[in-house]
Amino acid sequence: MQDENQAPEGQEVLAFRLGAEEYGIDILTVQEIRGYEAVTAMASAPDFIKGVINLRGRIVPIVDMRIRFNLGKPVYDQFTVVIILNVAGHVIGMVVDSVSDVITLAPDQIKPAPDMGTALNAGPLVGLGTLDQRMIILLDIDKLMSSAEMGLIDRLAA
């Protein structure tokens, strides 16, 4: 079994934007990137779950990260994308404002995250990546989609 935390040659992350901030997730969790399209709303779902889409015959729940992180009212435009993720064997769509690029961060470019009491609790926040003048908030997508949420997402996808 491969240890995902070991990356002596660097960690590849997909960088994306939510508002003014840039975030990064492990590229190995990314299945594909799609333009934003209308979703089918689900009754009784939390507000951050926009609904579901049919992705080649598979029903995929769509989570809006701007709503999830309380970053204001989302705006859907030509830059809005859905990152299709494979998390713990589940396919989930994550709406973000835009995707920047795939970057490789060397171990010395990843700093521990300070405790600032932000919208993110300490669980999903892996650290901060620095690349030139960029600061990238690194997320553990497995922890972000907590077990309680994954249970709800499982029910939506069923």
Automatic annotation (TrEMBL):
**Is Cytoplasm there in the keyword field?**
yes
Per UniProt, subcellular location reads as:
Cytoplasm
Q: Could you tell me the superkingdom of the organism this chain comes from?
A: Bacteria
List the CDD domains.
Answer: CheW (cd00732)
For this UniProt record, give its keywords in alphabetical order, as a comma-separated list: Cytoplasm
One Pfam family assigned to this protein is: CheW
Q: Which GO terms describe its biological process?
A: chemotaxis; signal transduction
Q: Look up keyword NAD and say if it applies.
A: no
Where this protein primarily resides, as one coarse class?
cytoplasm
Q: Where is the CheW-like domain?
A: 10-150
Q: Which GO terms describe its cellular component?
A: cytosol
Q: Which InterPro entries match?
A: CheW, CheW-like_dom_sf, CheW-lke_dom
Indicate what this protein is called per its UniProt record.
Chemotaxis protein CheW
Source organism? Massilia horti
